[in-house]
């Protein structure tokens, strides 16, 4: 039991010592260094930008532009959107069981059709 209390006492002293070291390290002890700052000269473009921003800040928007005759004389050249039927819920689902066939047969049909398209017509045929 005595060893347990002795170990507790040593651990307590170690925790207090570590807390003191951490406080001393974080307090910075001594004079603080000045922050790094740089002085840059103000250019004409900077002044122009600031004056433009201040001018824009003074702008107020209201709805009087919509009653102006110039605005009323504008014509709408937009196109009417025609409603179309909605497609399938899952466009990637197969259409039927025939859609699950292998692609080689489709390639053969494609090749036969393309051969017919690009073949020279025989004499007397069109």
From TrEMBL:
Superkingdom, taxonomy of origin: Bacteria
Protein name per its UniProtKB record: Uncharacterized protein
């Amino acid at each position: 039991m005595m060893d347990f209390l002795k170990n507790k006492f040593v651990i307590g002293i170690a925790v207090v010592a570590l807390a003191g070291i951490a406080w001393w390290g974080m307090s910075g002890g001594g004079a603080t260094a000045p922050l790094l700052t740089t002085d840059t000269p103000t250019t004409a473009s900077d002044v122009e930008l600031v004056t433009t921003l201040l001018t824009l800040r003074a702008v107020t928007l209201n709805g009087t532009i919509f009653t102006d005759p110039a605005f009323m004389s504008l014509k709408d050249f937009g196109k009417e959107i025609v409603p179309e039927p909605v497609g399938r819920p899952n466009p990637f689902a197969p259409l039927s069981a025939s859609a699950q066939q292998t692609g080689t047969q489709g390639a053969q049909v494609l090749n036969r059709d393309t051969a017919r398209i690009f073949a020279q017509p025989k004499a007397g045929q069109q």
